[in-house]
Specification:
- The complex is a heterodimer of chains A (254) and B (278).
- Helix content of chain A is 78%, strand content 0%.
- Chain A is mainly α.
- The radius of gyration of chain A is 22 Å and the shape is globular.
- Chain A has one domain: MetI-like (MetI-like fold), CATH 1.10.3720.10.
- In chain A, helix 3 packs across helix 8.
- Chain A contains ten helices and no strands.
- Chain B has two domains: 198 residues, P-loop containing nucleotide triphosphate hydrolases (Rossmann fold), CATH 3.40.50.300; 66 residues, no CATH class.
- Helix content of chain B is 37%, strand content 23%.
- Chain B contains eight helices and ten strands.
- Chain B has a six-stranded mixed sheet, with helices on both faces. In chain B, strands 2-1-4-5 form a four-stranded antiparallel sheet, with helices on one face.
- In chain B, helix 6 links the parallel strand 7 and strand 8.
- In chain B, helix 3 crosses helix 4, helix 4 crosses helix 5 and helix 7 packs antiparallel against helix 8.
- Chains A and B meet through helix 7 and helix 8 of A and helix 3 of B.
């Protein structure tokens, strides 16, 4: 019952979520939560189904997912490369480390006017903000991953007479993989947040823009339908990444 | 550098046995940031004979591991010469296998793939890999864990994986750097038996670094006692055990005599070490 099926904790978690949704539904139906404020979950779902069926927002959905994909890919690739470079230069690292540690204390979004000036109101401005938000998570995870490679594995590589490139590929990379994957997971989450939030303020399309647009026009059904979509996409993506992450983590010693 | 130490070391090297690896005047000095050097080891003279089991004991920080690194070709001596099978050691020599104290198994590979790793690197053909890996896995009692990942195994089992991984390469000289240091006493004694079995079966020369006097006394043909840093051999004790010995040798009357002699020398060196501590 461990593999494939849900664990006991899994069932309890599922029960809590279902109970919460049902209670939410009930409060809406009884009028405790007014319809002008929030819709019952069942109506959010039918609204989302309707939106997907009519294809009204297909272009926006594609645009958002595309931006998230590009921003994640850029953050992961650049963050990994920068992480390796910073790890190789201890002096640079000593200088940068306090900055990296306090990076997420800065609200990166406040720089949006700068990006509009540089890139205009475009996908590029959105991607730039999302990358800025997510790249540091990847850099930090790369540094941790490289730090945690046991010295004895390097010695073992020397015993097998491996060159630097071979060692990097066959020893360092798989040894650091669990930490790198945590970085990938975080980079994706931050990129998703970055793209949706940027679309609210500097875009003419995308899911974030359409949520803001629906809000301004009192179109509650559309707004909540799209919000539900964002929640579903984020949850599913995170669940998939988390499963891989946990499998990798379980191979770490102790 | 004292006369006593030279006398003790040269006194044993009389039998015209076949030398497998040799150290002559080997010294290791580590450069320090201050510009001075840390004299870690030597000068060391050592003849390792073909097929013998040689253990090295010494106080902590005496350069035991540095000695092993020199023989493994991992760090060249600052001074002196090191040879293996009459060739100077320059880089990791062919035919030398090393087992470290720390768990060096690859956590991302199954036990079987861990054991096969070196053979795949060397480009050995698959049929031969299968044969040798099957043998090593059977020999080390890992048959039921072939598909397991190291994280699912105990410390002793992981060390077996590392030994099997070395064994498949059919090394002629096996260097072990405190391989059982992280294991509990019972497991250590049993692993010692495994090691003796492996040594008999393969006919390889074994150099074992250990801080456990009983382990050294029980396993070895000869035990070299090292001084406090800079490490030099101050005594080499011959045990005269039969080749088909095992851990039950600890109840042999001669066993106490060997450990007593080892401790007599080592005690003085360990006291020196404690005395120099701030």
């Amino acid at each position: 019952m461990k593999r494939g099926g849900l664990t006991r904790e899994g069932w309890i978690r599922l029960a809590v979520v279902v109970a919460f949704v049902l209670a939410f539904e009930l409060l809406c139906r009884l009028g405790v939560l007014p319809r002008t404020v929030v819709l019952p979950p069942s109506e959010m779902a039918t609204s989302l189904w309707h939106l997907l069926e009519t294809g009204e927002f297909t272009a926006d959905i594609v645009s958002t997912l595309q931006d998230v994909a590009i921003a994640s890919a850029l953050s992961i690739a650049l963050g990994f490369a920068l992480g390796i470079a910073i790890h190789a230069l201890p002096r640079l690292r000593a200088t940068l480390e306090p900055l990296l540690a306090s990076y997420y204390a800065i609200p990166t979004f406040m720089f949006y006017p700068v990006f509009i000036v540089v890139f205009g109101v475009s996908d590029r401005a959105i991607i730039a903000i999302a990358v800025l938000l997510s790249i540091v998570a990847m850099i930090a995870s790369t540094l941790t991953g490289l730090d945690r490679i046991p010295r004895v594995l390097r010695k073992t590589a020397a015993i097998y007479r491996m060159g630097l490139a071979r060692r990097a590929l066959l020893i360092d990379l798989p040894a650091a993989a669990p930490h790198l994957f945590t970085g990938i997971k975080l980079a994706f989450a931050y990129a998703f947040i970055g793209v949706i939030a940027s679309e609210f303020i500097l875009s003419g399309q995308g899911i974030g823009y359409q949520i803001a647009y629906a809000y301004n026009n009192f179109e509650n059904r559309k707004m909540y339908g799209l919000m539900l979509l964002v929640i579903i996409v984020a949850t599913v993506a995170n669940a998939v990444l988390d499963t891989i992450d946990r499998r990798l983590q379980s191979r770490l010693r102790r | 550098m004292t006369a006593a130490s030279d006398g003790a070391a040269s006194g044993v090297e009389i039998a015209p046995r076949d030398v497998h690896a040799q150290l002559r005047g080997v010294t290791r000095v580590f450069p320090l940031a201050s510009g001075a050097g840390l004299h870690a080891l030597g000068p060391i003279d050592l003849d390792l004979y073909h097929g013998e089991f040689f253990a090295v004991v010494g106080p902590s920080g005496c350069g035991k591991s540095t000695l092993l690194d020199v023989l493994a070709g991992l760090s060249p001596p600052t001074d002196g010469t090191a040879t293996f099978e009459d060739k100077p050691i320059d880089g990791v020599p062919d035919g030398v296998g090393v087992v470290f104290q720390e768990d060096a198994s690859f956590p991302w590979l199954t036990v079987r793939d861990n054991v096969a790793f070196g053979l795949r690197r060397a480009g050995v053909d698959e049929a031969e890999i299968k044969k040798r890996v099957d043998y090593a896995i059977g020999f080390m009692g890992l048959r039921d864990f072939e598909r397991a990942y190291p994280a699912q195994l105990s410390g002793g089992m992981r060390q077996r994986v590392c030994i099997a991984r070395t064994l498949v390469l059919q090394p002629r000289l096996i260097l072990l750097d405190e391989p059982f240091g992280a294991l509990d006493q019972q497991t250590r004694l049993l692993m010692g038996d495994e090691l003796l079995r492996l040594w008999r079966e393969t006919g390889a020369t074994v150099l074992l670094i250990t801080h456990a006097l009983d382990e050294a006394a029980m396993l070895s043909d000869r035990v070299g006692v090292m001084s406090a840093r800079p490490g030099r051999f101050i005594d080499i004790v011959e045990t005269h055990w039969p080749r088909d010995r095992d851990s039950r040798i600890v109840s042999d009357p001669g066993f106490g005599a060997v450990t007593a002699r080892l401790w007599e020398k080592l005690r003085v060196e360990s006291l020196k070490l404690m005395g120099t501590r701030p």
